[in-house]
Write a structure and sequence with these properties.
Elements: H1 4-15, E1 34-36, E2 41-43, H2 45-51, E3 60-62, H3 70-78, H4 80-88, H5 105-117, H6 128-131, E4 134-142, E5 149-157, E6 162-166, E7 176-179, E8 184-187, H7 189-192, E9 198-204, E10 207-214, H8 218-239, H9 245-248, E11 258-264, E12 274-281, E13 284-288, E14 298-301, E15 310-313, E16 326-331, E17 336-341, H10 344-359, H11 364-374
Antiparallel strand pairs: 1-2, 1-3, 4-5, 4-10, 5-6, 6-7, 8-9, 9-10, 11-12, 11-17, 12-13, 13-14, 15-16, 16-17
């Protein structure tokens, strides 16, 4: 006869089949195998590790491997993911970023802490740091020329529609003013080399400018990120009054479609190929000498197939000067761009990224950007 312990484990496995429990309560990953027996939620292995950081609130065990008492099983049955999310996420602002299992540890950890430890979504007053429409503070910013990180004062003002920073703490004039209409922010811990690293981009004279920042306090960094999203959301609501929230939310911040090294040659196709760091940001393919450069060496607009943009495997015959063997040709209405990848896997992934962009119908604003690229000096 099955022991009580075995019965409890079977009941826990059955609870995973209840609606809402089949995905991690925090990041949405499928088939969670851990549970917090103090909060009543089922979570994935990765998020269970983050719950251990708030051990005074959440205590976790493996659904399949650890022993479960009858009272713990009853509690898990009476709560579950739906009920817990309804409680702890009841006042999440529309613009607030909900991390997924694909996101960096910092975003997922601060989401978990915001929900269960700080109770930010139970009380609107606790959302002041990113909901007030104004935020100022100091961030470590990477120097454009020397790569040194120095403390810089940043101010985000929804009323002015800008994010700006100052080189000296008592400076009256900002070093840079970034219009909210072109600002983007994306966490880049691997590229920047710190777990809290944020890449902020904006358009300056219609060219992309990169700023790399971090702060030792993870909450501070995620608050800045969500404050930028809030400012973008309110700007877009005014700019596109008829648009629904579901239309606007993907535009608040975006991760890059793909990044990595490729080789490239110049417009005459006679120069030797040079290794460059490439970033595919929406329809802009940018290349840099170093991944942390402030400005791109060049930008290529990737339009839609209806405008005669195509991507082909390989390079045209008689092309020389490349070291990497796996070529890609992007055909635009004006010229061909030639690239070479180190591995066949890289080639396949880059081609898939380009194809995704080319298959997407162009929007009115895309045509405006394309026209700018065509008339670029």
């Amino acid at each position: 006869m099955a022991s009580d312990q075995e019965k409890n484990r079977q009941r826990m496995k059955q609870l995973l089949g209840k609606p809402g429990n089949g995905n991690c309560a925090d990041c949405g990953a499928a088939d969670p195998e851990w549970a917090s027996y103090t909060l009543g939620v089922f979570v994935c292995h990765s998020c269970s590790g983050l719950h251990r950081n708030i051990a005074q609130i959440s205590k976790v065990k493996s659904v399949l491997l650890d022993p479960w008492s009858s009272s713990e099983v009853e509690f898990m049955d009476s709560v579950g993911n739906y009920a817990t999310k309804a409680k702890y996420e009841q006042m999440v602002p529309t613009f607030y970023y909900h991390p997924t299992y694909k996101d960096c540890t910092l975003l997922r950890e601060q989401w978990i802490r915001a929900k269960y430890e700080r109770g930010e979504f139970l009380c609107v007053e606790k959302q002041e740091p990113y909901s007030a429409g104004y935020r100022e503070g100091f961030l470590w910013k990477r120097g454009r020329d020397n790569g040194q990180y120095l403390s810089r004062k940043f101010i985000l003002s929804e009323r002015e529609g800008v994010l700006k920073y100052f080189n000296k703490h008592d400076a009256r004039e900002p070093k840079a003013i970034m219009n909210i209409n072109s600002v983007n922010a994306t966490f880049q811990p691997t590229k920047i080399g710190t777990a809290h690293g944020l890449q902020i981009t904006y358009l300056k004279d219609n060219s992309t400018r990169n700023i790399f920042v971090y702060h030792e306090d993870g909450k501070e960094m995620v608050d800045w990120f969500n404050a930028i999203r809030a400012a973008r959301f309110h700007y877009l609501q005014v700019a596109f009054p008829g648009a629904s929230n579901s239309d606007l939310l993907p535009k608040l911040t975006r991760n890059y479609i793909k990044e990595g090294y490729m080789e490239k040659t110049g417009p005459k196709h006679t120069e030797g190929f040079k290794k460059r760091w490439f970033t595919m940001d929406d329809r802009r393919l940018m290349y840099f000498k170093d991944p942390l450069d402030a400005y791109a060496r060049g930008e290529v607009f990737i339009g839609g197939k209806e405008s005669s943009y195509t991507v082909l495997a390989g390079l045209p015959p008689n092309i020389q000067g490349y070291h990497w063997q796996f070529g890609i040709t992007i055909v635009t209405p004006d010229r061909k761009f030639l690239f070479a990848c180190e591995t066949e896997e890289d080639q396949k992934n880059w081609m898939a990224a380009f194809q995704t962009v080319i298959n997407r119908p162009m929007l009115p604003q895309d045509f405006a950007v394309e026209a700018y690229f065509k008339h670029k000096p």
